[in-house]
Amino acid sequence: MKMKNSELLKAFRYVWKNQRIWVLFSALISLFMGLIPITNLWVVKELINEVAAVLGGAKQEYTASFLLLLAQFALLFVSSAVLKGQELLDKQTEIKLDHDLQQMVMQKTSSAPLAFYDVPAFHDTIERVYTGHGIRFMQPVKNIFEIGRYFTTLLSFFAFLLSVHWGLVLVSLAGSIPVLLVLVRFGNQRFHLRFHQTPLAREASYLKHLLIDRQAAKEVRLFQMKEFLLRGWSDKYRKNSQELLKLTRREKLAMIGMDGLTALFYVSAAGLIIWLARTTKVTIGDFVALGQAVQGTQGAMNGIVTHLARIHETRLYIREFFQFIELDLSAYEIKRGTAPFPRPLETGITVDNLSFCYPGSERYTLRNVSFSISPGERIAIVGENGSGKTTLVKCLMGLYRLSEGQIRFDGLPLEEIGESEFFRNLTVIFQDFMHYDFTVRENISIGQLEAAADLERVKRAAQKSGADRFVQRMADGYDTYLGRSFRDGEDLSGGQWQKVALARALFSDGQVIILDEPTAALDPRAEMEVFQKFDQLTQNSTAVFISHRMAAARMADRILVMKDGALLESGSHEELMALGGEYQRMYDMQAKWYV
Ligand SMILES: Nc1ncnc2c1ncn2[C@@H]1O[C@H](COP(=O)(O)OP(=O)(O)OP(=O)(O)O)[C@@H](O)[C@H]1O
């Protein structure tokens, strides 16, 4: 309980720190609005008595009635204007809070260690805490002010009812307690339902995404997946919505019962007033006002109870939000030091007895891998699918915590090098590199956007990779948008995208360039060009490339052969051919196709 309340306190503190004016205004408005009903009640009572006197002929004077009518108009108008002002202020605050809190979530998500993305629960939590922060953080504060407002109204009504008979207060109070219990119970159930529905909701939205995604559109048609996807989406959607409907049905039924109970208490109170009229002098205005006060008291009680239940419900969401923001990622994190990257690399990279197991997996993907790379050396890594090549690159990048062993740069352990320093000096283009819907210039300079203004440098990288040839023909040259999801940009072929990605690698001033299948999408001529120029392309850099093309690997200074997560062979093309092992087998197998 204490822990839960501390989450609420945190939300209050956050809102108070960031939106103090809104909090103060809301408090004032709540107090003001809380006093409106009793003022209105008094005006109504006086008005009815005045009109009754005029109609009954006891009074000739109309002025008081008109003045009271005017007061009623003023009350209606002012309260409506104040409420609209409050709504506007709320919206402004919601937008501001939403922006800042969403940013907090995105910061947390984007700085989470990569290993965390492999944990499904991580995605479930993101889905739950990704939207509606602003309103959820404001909600408890608003609820408290609303409770304050209703409380002010309640006290003023109680004072009025007490002045007639204490029994009226008792009847009004008794009607509200069952409502409290029902609302709290269903608030809890709604939250837990949403919690357990998230995985299925995520699956449904994945299927929906496939149905509308541009990238998937071709295959969805080709493999006639429409029915399969639609059915899958519909089943999941229906399952979740049926559960929600079931809960809503139970909730509404309970509410009907509660409303009946409230009406019963109101009728009892009205009976009590009539009974009182036999012994006490009650005017027609008093009767109407007392009836309104009983109803108003119950309304205010319901209001308090509803807002208490909402606080409870929102508290559960806020707790999840803070749990996510404060999530301890240390088990996945790699503690990075601040040492500069050795520049220039003098002794090179050493991988020492590296073993690696993906988080949550029992199986070692890399086992006792040891090798070293000298500065300026060109290394090719070859091996069958799934032999661990990409995993090795991810480890070299320091994206995962190693299970065993160490990676050093000029003898300096990877973890001791400052992160941004590290990524500045190590450039990787993955096999599944991103196609950014940005301009060509941004796509090439993405690792160093601050240098994007240097068009000559962008062009040089594109010339080396071969991208310049087709970029020149585009209407806006290097400022042409790529992709067509957002605007009328240029669509590139797979090979053209790869040339852009290669330019991205060449644009960086990294000392180590790692390319995972850099030529897989290139035509034979472009591929030859890349490999023939490879020395020149990766000038002054240490280069590692993964390739399934043995002819390309042949151009490397040294070839590492991976099999089942282990480093099987290492040497130049000639040495490995002479060895007559796995490399020779792979090489001969490919060579057969070309004879
Ligand atoms: N995030 C992950 N979590 C768990 N296992 C993974 C993950 N990524 C890859 N693996 C597993 O690790 C093994 C090696 O994968 P890796 O991508 O390193 O192979 P690869 O040699 O690069 O293959 P390819 O030539 O097909 O690109 C595979 O069995 C794969 O299933």
UniProtKB/TrEMBL annotation:
Membrane topology according to the record: Multi-pass membrane protein
Pfam family, one: ABC_membrane
Occurrences of domain ABC transporter (ranges): 349-589
Keywords: ATP-binding, Cell membrane, Membrane, Nucleotide-binding, Transmembrane, Transmembrane helix, Transport
Domain of life per record: Bacteria
GO MF term (any one): ATP hydrolysis activity
Localisation: Cell membrane
Spans traversing the lipid bilayer: 21-42, 62-83, 144-162, 168-187, 253-277
Boundaries of every ABC transmembrane type-1 domain copy: 24-313
Cellular component terms (Gene Ontology): plasma membrane
Name of protein: ABC transporter ATP-binding protein
Organism the protein comes from: Tumebacillus avium
